[in-house]
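Possible regression after last week's pipeline update?

I re-ran a chain I had predicted before the update to compare outputs. Posting the input and the new output here so someone can diff against the archived version. Not blocking, just want to make sure nothing changed silently.
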Amino acid sequence: MNYDSFISKRLGGKDFFKTSYYKFEWCNQQKKKYLLNHQDKLLDFGIGESNLMPDIQIIDELTKQAYVYENRVYADNGIEQFKDKAKVHMKEIYDVDCDKLNLKINHVMGAKSGLVILPFSFISKNDYVIYTIPGYSVLPTFAKWLEAKLYPIPLLKENNYLPDLDKIPDRIYKKTKIFIINYPNSPTGAIANISFYEKLIKKALKYHFLIVNDCVYGTLCYKSKPISIFNAKDSNLCCIELHSLSKAFHMTGYRIGFVICNEKLMNIIKEVKDNMDSGQYIPIQYAAIKAYDIEKQAIKKANNYFYQRLVKIQKILTKYNLECEIPDSTFYLYVKAPKSFKTGKDFFKYLLDEGGIYTIFFDDVGPYVRFSMTYKEDKTFYKTLEDRLKKLTRLQE
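New output (post-update):
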């Protein structure tokens, strides 16, 4: 049988595997090939999965709740206790009063799941989705599969890695249904300010589109207070924000986060979600509640931990002519490839094949790679990194 003929035309039909390229998986395959052919240790600065375990109190709560008979059932759209605690989290960390702004919260099985639900909730054929590059491709990819039109807008250093809203034509704004942003931003580490949010919100209200802010790195701020888009005026009218416990609480595999927006939008999202999943395991929701119970010390500890790593690695990289700055947020260093490399992908391969240094490449607005501070270290880690960089002759060209 010709199985390719069964692939949905929306997905690209027989060309699906050419057009469905998921960069992170491709990078992971290159990493596996390296490990098969090399005995020496890989220095892994790749995908941002925390190297730390969740706090023991979180694990203990998960274990305790797993023994509760009533917790074995479908969670559907989540337990009220998690929603209530997430409201407290928004107030404590972001100074967002959900009741005052009439904002509702619903759990999602990780922010990635939420980013899939949103285009199914709001996108129709030929709607436009504006998205930033470099960035996380999940929502734009699903929007494309739903036959939307994609409009990328670059994040440039000269604009503080914020999209230039004035460069987007009126004809695009008029056709736009979703404008997705990601602040704090991966891979650049940039933070958006209130004036940017308010300018974007004015555009959304004028042209009648929704703003989605992927705020999974929201608590990882090193020099300023965390900001939510809901700190901005009129945000409750047109904004949706996604939060996650993966980063600051080291709960990546738990797949738990939440979406926040006004009640009318939430009613749509919940109805779609009900048809897409049966909710996250209830003990995991209780573990997330425990994480929020201890969030002040946990967030402070995570921020100190990752910031110290950023300082150490940035110092080493700049010593070997790799251009990067310590970001305001996230646990990434966004590193420009040396002039001898035409693309970030070429530089990624060189670092991996010649140095045993695994990163993630970005070529959307120039040749870059991203170093994640979630690596596993031992006593020789930093010396090994320096020794390997020292031997990479093309860094000196």
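Follow-up from reviewer: compared with the archived run. The radius of gyration is 21 Å. Marking as no regression found.
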